[in-house]
Amino acid sequence: MFWQASRYRLDLSRPRVMGIVNLTPDSFSDGGRHEGPGAALRHCEQLLADGADILDLGAESSRPGAAVLPADAEMARLLPVLREAVRLGVPVSIDTYKPRVMQAALDLGADIVNDIWALRWHDAAAGEAPGAAQAVVAAHPGCGVCLMHMHGEPATMQRQPMEGDAPAQVRAFLAAAALQLRARGVAAERIVLDPGIGFGKTVAQNFALLAHQAELLDLGHALLAGWSRKSSLAAVAGGADRPASERLIPSVAAALLAVERGARIVRVHDVRDTQAALRIWCAATPSSSPSTPQERTFP
């Protein structure tokens, strides 16, 4: 299986690690630590040294309770870093849901659009029509896209989480989202799906999604899992009263379980430790082998 992502065609026969680069002052885990182009680029370089296969740049927090950031403010944070990040020799993903930001990022050379709204959001006040985000991605000749399931929106999603059978609802949503994009001419190998751990779900629902993750595989698209430092891990493993940055071991364990259940990409804060764990897993799975900074190649 491959993921077509603009300048790169990623071989997903081995698990890939997407390193998180938060450009925000208010992200739930490391908000403010990499604010400003200089600090952000140093963090990008460190993630690559640690073995990241993909960089995921995000300039707006999607933590529970987060408010919408105006597109101009998001681009002011994002674009100066992106201009330099696209020169680092790996695919660069942009964590955004706004069509204007997507277009600006793709014009600067971003390879992947990683959208928590699965291309549903549009700014009606600015004259954007429904489907504007889908149109941006469909008009691009080869960018990758990750469609994520989210119940509600960041401002309210954990006050009013979804009800009922989470795996069935998430599967139906992602199937429909991918089908809509395919109908616009986007090739299947450009599309990756994300069940959206922590986005409007209870702790039990998040773990039900992990237990039944394999049921998403028959949708025909690669899966991305984003468990890193999520509060559900602390709720089960303990340490809910400690900072999110101290959830390393549960995060790595969840990433390994997600890969074992078929995820091909894991989105993480702790790249070095996740890659080390994946090497152990791959040693027992000869058909897969993790990347290292020295071995990283993109067919």
Description:
By secondary structure, this protein is α/β, with parallel strands linked by helices. The chain has a single domain (2-283), classed as Alpha-Beta Barrel (TIM Barrel), CATH 3.20.20.20. 35% of the residues lie in helices and 15% in strands. The chain has helices at 37-50, 71-85, 99-107, 132-139, 166-183, 203-211, 231-237, 248-260, 271-283, and strands at residues 2-5, 8-11, 16-22, 54-58, 92-95, 112-115, 144-148, 191-194, 222-225, 265-268. The strands form 2 sheets. It has an 8-stranded parallel beta barrel with strand order 3-4-5-6-7-8-9-10, surrounded by 6 helices. A two-stranded antiparallel sheet has the order 1-2. β8 (191-194), α6 (203-211) and β9 (222-225) form a beta-alpha-beta unit. The radius of gyration is 18 Å and the shape is globular.
Provide the gyration radius in Å. Answer: 18 Å
CATH class: Alpha Beta
Q: Can you summarize the main beta sheet?
A: 8 strands, parallel, barrel
The DSSP helix count reads: 9
Strand content: 15-25%
The dominant shape is: globular
Query: What's the CATH architecture?
Result: Alpha-Beta Barrel
Run of helices and strands: EEEHEHEHEHEHEHEHHEH
List descriptors.
alpha/beta; eight-stranded parallel barrel; two-stranded antiparallel ribbon; 299 residues; TIM Barrel; 9 helices; 10 strands
